[in-house]
Amino acid sequence: MIAARTQAEPFDAAAEAAALTAGRVDIGAVVTFTGLVRADDGLTSLTLEHYPAMTNRQMATIAHEAEHRWPISAGTIIHRHGRLLPGEPIVLVAIASPHRAAAFEAAEFLMDWLKTKAPFWKAEERDSGTSWVAAKHEDDLAAARWS
Amino acid sequence: MDFLYFAWVRERIGIAEEQLAPPPEITTVAGLLDWLAARSPGHAAALADRSAIRVALDQAFVPLGAPLGRPAEIAIFPPVTGG
């Protein structure tokens, strides 16, 4: 029910959310989260490397776990890879459910687990050079609260 | 066994993947990393800080103390930073 995919191209969050509810009258809530590239400290681009075979597996596993925990009517997860510019979307989590609590919680859970369990790595490019982003302890804590 | 490297682990080793046959006496992931680190200065530099190393056997995360088993693919990379 939750479709997960990776792609290099940008996505249209509004169109993805609309597709979840098209023709349905049993959905009462859609929560859409879009992560964007910030131009922190003069960042000029962000390059996302990933491990395709494991990414697909992990995203499917994470989606399945969300379906197991909440009543989800439909959902879409998109994670981009490649070189992205400030302002561009990186990640989409769109979740439809009969009620809002499940949609909010499932979307938050999916983002927390994506950040800590899907094999992507961000490299930040600035005029001064390129550096890999370090993992954040608070992301681990955020993911752990769902265990 | 196919070895895959990502992010700064890939950069420090200098290649994205290689095929290696670890000796049969290596039975744990940690033992495999020790053996791998001895292959070149680049391997040693990539694996110097084990607290910053994550390992997946056949696309599933394993702790460094896990038994090695006989995976077809081992991936070595830093903690993930997607999302």
What can you see in these coordinates?
The complex is a heterodimer of chains A (147) and B (83). Chain A is 36% helix and 34% strand. Chain A has 4 helices and 8 strands; from the N terminus they run E-H-E-E-H-E-E-E-H-E-E-H. In chain A, a hairpin with a 2-residue loop joins strand 7 and strand 8. The longest helix of chain A is centred in the middle third of the chain and has 18 residues. Chain B is α+β, with helices and mostly antiparallel strands and 83 residues long. Chain B has a 5-stranded mixed beta sheet. Chain B is globular, with a radius of gyration of 12 Å. The chains are: A alpha+beta (147), B alpha+beta (83). Chains A and B meet through strand 3, helix 2, helix 3 and strand 7 of A and strand 5 of B.
Helix/strand layout:
The complex is a heterodimer of chains A (147) and B (83).
Chain A: E1 2-7, H1 13-21, E2 29-36, E3 45-50, H2 52-69, E4 74-80, E5 82-84, E6 89-97, H3 100-117, E7 120-126, E8 129-132, H4 137-144
Parallel strand pairs in A: 1-4
Antiparallel strand pairs in A: 2-6, 3-5, 3-7, 4-6, 7-8
Helix pairs in contact in A: 2-3, 3-4
Chain B: E1 2-5, H1 7-13, E2 17-19, H2 29-37, H3 41-46, E3 54-57, E4 60-62, E5 73-77
Parallel strand pairs in B: 1-5
Antiparallel strand pairs in B: 1-2, 3-4, 3-5
Compute the number of helices of chain A. 4
CATH architecture of chain A: Alpha-Beta Complex
Domain module count of chain B? 1
Quote the average pLDDT of chain B. Answer: 97
Outline type of chain B: globular
Which runs of chain A of at least 5 residues are low in confidence (pLDDT < 50)?
none
Report the CATH C-level class of chain B. Answer: Alpha Beta
| Cα distance spanning the termini of chain A | 22 Å
- Helical residue percent band of chain B: 25-40%
Strand order of the largest sheet of chain A: 1-4-6-2
| Helix proportion range of chain A | 25-40%
Compute the number of structural domains of chain A.
1
Question: What are the segments of chain B in which pLDDT stays under 50 over at least 5 consecutive residues?
Answer: none
The CATH topology annotation of chain B reads as: Ubiquitin-like (UB roll)
Run of helices and strands of chain A: EHEEHEEEHEEH
Overall geometric form of chain A: globular
